[in-house]
Amino acid sequence: MKYLYFIPLLQMLIPINTYAEKIREQQFEVYFAPYYVASTTLNFKKNAQLVLNERTGWSLGLGFNFTDNLSGEAMFSSSSGKYTVNTLRDDGTPYQYIEEAEYSSLLVGMTYNVMEGPFTPYISGNLGISFVDTGIADGGGYQSCWYDPWYGYICGTYETTKTTTQFSLGASTGVRYDFDNKLFVKGGVGVNMTYFNSSSLPYFLTGQLFVGSRF
User: What is the mean pLDDT of residues 42-69?
Assistant: First the structure.
């Protein structure tokens, strides 16, 4: 019978999360997110190797909180960085060159906030497409002219570059805090995978900081 004295105490402790104030439910949110991508090396057939340098970029996103725990989002991201290609010529001698690529992605994702209330850990997943401009001339080109107020008409010839569009998916985890004035911040680490037809797993480790507002 003495254990019955603990029942009221348990009833006081257990409902804390059950009756937490709903602060995100049925609200849209927008955010800006600078991010960092660690360097990685991809191996290809015929002993070709692609070394992608570390880079920084930014994302813009729009999301909707179905509940305090579950949200969906769409985002656009952009970054650029140098890369090194190590390969072999037809005669077997090594050949190396360095270029700079531009990356952009359109992604959709879901986020699960582990707890209700202003502070919560979260886990996220996303998928979409990534567009890569390799910076390598593909043999084409075009001429463009424009009027400059100082010099008059100016014309120039521009080379087109090799581009590729690939499927991407990713996952991340971190923590989030919502302020009373509708602002929120969250930060986390993640892994993204983009298919580049490489023999090694094409994954990229990332770190990201989100600053946004609910409405």
Answer: 94
pTM greater than the 0.85 cutoff? no
- Does the structural domain 23-134+162-214 have CATH classification 2.40.160.20? yes
Per residue in 95-112, pLDDT (tens digit) is 999 999 999 999 999 999
**Rounded to the nearest 5°, which phi and psi values hold at 151?**
-115, -5
Top mean pLDDT of 10-24, 87-101, 116-130 is at 116-130
The pLDDT value given to residue 171: 97
In three-state form (DSSP H/G/I as H, E/B as E, the rest C), the secondary structure along the chain is CHHHHHHHHHHHHCHHHHCCCCCCCCEEEEEEEEEEECCEEEECCCCCEEEECCEEEEEEEEEEECCCCEEEEEEEEEEEEEEEEEEECCCCCEEEEEEEEEEEEEEEEEEEECCCCCEEEEEEEEEEEEEEEEEEEEEEEEEEEEEECCCEEEEEEEEEEEEEEEEEEEEEEEEEEECCCCEEEEEEEEEEEECCCCCCCCEEEEEEEEEEEEC
Specify the 3-state DSSP secondary structure of 86: strand
Domain range list for the chain:
23-134+162-214
Contact 61, 74 (CB under 8 A): yes
- Whether pLDDT at 70 is above 70: yes
